[in-house]
Amino acid sequence: MGTRQVATKQFSDYALEKMMDLFHHHDHEVGSQLKKTEPEKYKEYKSTDCITYVLNVLSHAFREMGDEQSADRAWQLGAHGTELAKYLVKKHDWKAVYLNPDSAHPRDATADAVRRSEEHTYSSLIALKKHTYYDIPLKYAVQDYCVTPEDHESFQLLNKNKPVTQHNETDIASLEQVSFGFGISRGGMHTWLFSKGKIYEVHWNSIGDGLYEATPIRIFPWLSGAIIIPPEQTKYLAVSAKLK
Amino acid sequence: MSRLAFLLFFTLLTSCSVQSQQEVVLLDYNDFGPQIIAREVIGMEWWQWQEHGDSDPAAVYPVKVAVYRDIPLTEVEQRYPVEPEQKKDFRYLEYQRALDFLDEKITENMLENVTEQLKTTRKKIVSQLGK
Fold it and tell me: What is the pLDDT of residues A29-82, one digit of tens each?
């Protein structure tokens, strides 16, 4: 009689389980800003927000792997998404991937917010030149997967003299195979989780159905940022995505 | 006597013009470039009393930067206090540190649009606070 081999679970497996559990079952939670403005109304609810979602998932996975120390450390650093990212890269060998749907023509440039939109092109230049994103060491870059058409308002407002960006399908398609990652936008202004092409985030001024949201990465409105993935996930990334 | 009066008047006039040179100039956050570089001298773009920003990418934070010269920081903080309830967020940046940062990024010239903006910011600071 043969013995049945049970596959050993990895960090990503535990993280994904917790991520989807909270995504589908969060009746006990409320966005932290909502709880702050109406503390009496929401006193029975547990407060959550973008980074709390991340920390709930990461700490759960660390604990399931038997690493209480790292679970605690994640919570200590958690106030700052970039510090948490650097910790995962330096202490746990996670790999950081720079993201930018259109490195030359960001889609969020508006007449009264053009300068704010420069963040995307500038961060791309730093990523390629210095291999860092807010001091997080980068190993990969996945860019130009949702290019802005020439007739778009944003294209006309920013860098309009540069040609339309060439679409890169290979790198994004490889990233969409990754089953778990932790994401940062605008240097930690917002944080989120990732699995199989979708971004999972919490909105801190919501409750119920609006509290959690899933969005395909290709159309995620935060545009540039970074996703940090456990080492076992790097096998899915295209060679072309590796920074040289 | 009239010469003395003239001398006194002239002294008073020039002393007034020296003392009336500005000590603080108020600028916008993005006058120092996008957050990825501006944060090196004035911190992150979201409200300083919060650990992170809103989950809405369109949320804006009208952070102001007080560049000051030849006055104590405490006085700048008193003139432009941070008031979370009023959504007043000030960052304080000493004159020379501001110029050093701007000169470094202008020389680096990573992105032409931003370099031109930084040059404009530098001109504004120097014209109001002196060389």
Answer: 999 999 999 999 999 999 999 999 999 999 999 999 999 999 999 999 987 899
Q: What are the chain A neighbours of B51 within 8 Å (beta carbons)?
A: 51, 79-80
CB-CB contact of A185 with A217 (8 Å): no
Q: Smallest Cα–Cα separation from A132: which of A122, A145, A144, A123?
A: A123
In this predicted structure, which of A156-160, A197-201, A212-216, A220-224 has the lowest mean pLDDT? Answer: A156-160
Q: How far apart are CA A206 and CA A23, in angstroms?
A: 14
Element (H, E) at A212: strand A212-216
Closest partner CB to B53 (pick from A80, A125, A189): A189
| Residue A112 pLDDT | 86
Token pair for residue A239?
């060679």
What ranges do the domains of chain A cover? 11-241
Question: Which tokens hold the place of A219?
Answer: 């159309």
Q: Do A50 and B55 touch (CB under 8 A)?
A: yes
